[in-house]
Amino acid sequence: MRAFAREEEKMGYRKAKAKAKSMPKASRGVIRQVARRRQDADEVAIALFEAEELQREQEEEDKILLEEARLYWGGDDDYDDDENEEPSSFEEGSSAQFMSEEEWY
Predict the structure, then answer these.
(1) What is the DSSP string of 9-38?
(2) Region labeled Disordered — which residues (predicted)?
(3) CB within 8 A of 91, min separation 6: which ones?
(4) Which of 4, 27, 50, 70 has an alpha carbon within 20 to 30 A of 13's alpha carbon?
């Protein structure tokens, strides 16, 4: 198999294929098997490359969306406004907490 692979690289695929036809059937089967494996490996490599490319694009898009959100909300990502708010005048635990003051009165 290795010898055929070397010859394939040296002579080119068409010449190697012509030579394979002159070989016994058992050898031809092995050659076909090697060719299928190479094709499968190529397809896997292409799929991995496309997946990596898609992931990079998604990460770039996520960064852009995060930056737009940060600019829209006008704050730091690490700053939490909720911690600095004063407690509401409504009783804790009541449903009134979630109502605006206008609705309450």
Answers:
(1) HHH-HHHHHHHHHTS-HHHHHHHHHHHHHH
(2) 1-25, 74-105
(3) 97
(4) 50
Q: Which DSSP category does 75 fall into?
A: S
Q: CA-CA distances (angstroms) from residue 1 to 20, 47, 66, 103?
A: 11, 26, 53, 82
CB 27 within 8 A of CB 20: yes
Q: What is the pLDDT of residues 30-71, one digit of tens each?
A: 767 777 788 888 888 888 888 899 999 999 999 999 999 999
Q: Does the global pTM surpass 0.85? A: no
User: Is residue 97 within 8 Å of 88, Cβ to Cβ?
Assistant: yes
